[in-house]
Design a protein that fits this description.
Mean pLDDT: 85
Number of helices: 5
Number of strands: 17
Oligomer: single chain
Strand content: 25-35%
Structural class: alpha+beta
Order of helices and strands: EEEEEEEEEEEHHEEEHEHHEE
Shape: globular
Distance between the termini: 27 Å
Low-confidence stretches: 105-116
Length: about 210
């Protein structure tokens, strides 16, 4: 297991690819001198950066035009926010990442997840219910949807957020396509644990994930 803190991409075919935070500050933007160059007009030249204080990693918006989002909430400019394992991050809603912190996962997750019905490991790309891994594994889009919902547990995730988080910003997604994905994921979860409803639909608002 890598000990490097990193982001895991949650965008279509790129789902699971890692952006390793090998040094700090670590910058994101359209400018070529950034550590990660995002070549789209929605991203500002110097859009955001990560810094570290001891073991803690912080995300800071650098006054970008279209914003930096943490778990669906736009960050105030020049105000570093601490990242925690499983946090969903988006820059200008043009990308969808999940923060992975191996140190936090090792120290906290086993004791916490022991009481939960469902456990998702974004680094390994696995999902277990009651300690049993999904077989066959979830499809990339099903995994991306579940990872987004888990990262926002207890909060209603809008259909627009789901479309961006799974298929990427600017990709047209029909209601039928989104509903079919939700239905397939719900059936897989029900088959694994028919005694609990993990996905709750809030009609007119979006989808809510609730673990045991």
């Amino acid at each position: 297991m890598s000990s490097v803190q990193r982001f895991l991409v949650q965008e279509g075919e790129r789902t699971g690819q890692a952006i390793e935070l090998t040094h700090f500050p670590f910058t994101f933007g359209r400018a070529r001198e950034c550590d990660v160059v995002l070549d789209t007009s929605a991203i500002s030249r110097l859009h955001a950066r990560c810094t570290r204080d001891g073991l803690n990693v912080y995300l800071e918006d650098l006054g970008s035009r279209n914003g930096t989002f943490l778990n669906g909430q736009r960050l105030p400019a020049h105000t570093p926010q601490r990242l925690r394992a499983g946090d969903a991050v988006s820059l200008a809603q043009a990308c969808s990442w999940v923060f992975d912190d191996p140190a936090t996962t090792v120290q906290i997750a086993p004791a916490q997840w022991a009481r939960l019905g469902l456990a998702l490991d974004p680094m390994a790309g696995t999902v277990t219910v009651g300690g049993q891994a999904f077989d066959p594994p979830l499809s990339p889009n099903q995994f991306a949807l579940l990872a987004l919902l888990c990262a926002n547990e207890g909060r209603v995730v809008s259909r627009a957020e789901i479309a961006t988080g799974v298929w990427g910003a600017g990709v047209p997604v029909s209601d039928e396509t989104l509903d079919a994905l939700v239905s397939r994921l719900r059936k897989r979860l029900h088959a694994a644990d028919p005694t609990h409803e993990y996905l709750i639909t809030r009609r007119g608002f979006g989808l809510l994930f609730q673990n045991r």
